[in-house]
Amino acid sequence: MSTPEPEWSEEDQAWMLALAEYRAGLCPACRRPLRECADPDADGGYTVPSPTRCHATTALLIAQEQYTESPQAGALLFHTERRG
C-alpha cells in the first residue's frame, strides 16, 4: 500500500492561506485594502479620472444588443477576437 503525495505542500498551503487572508481584507467595492479605503482620514483622498474605453467590450455589447429579443438571450455565449 502506498501513501499518495499530498496535492498541496505545506508551503503551498501557507501561500493559499495568506492569499485568502489578504482577499478577506479587501473592500468588496474597490478591491483595495479596507484599512486604507475605509479609513476616515482617507475621506476626500481619492479622485476619479476620466474613464478609459475597452474597445473589445464595446464590440461585445454592440453584438449582444442584436440578440436581446432572442429566446434565452442570456444563454448565448459571446467572445471577442482581435482583427489581424
Automatic annotation (TrEMBL):
Superkingdom of the source species: Bacteria
Protein's recorded name: Ferredoxin
Species assigned in the record: Plantactinospora solaniradicis
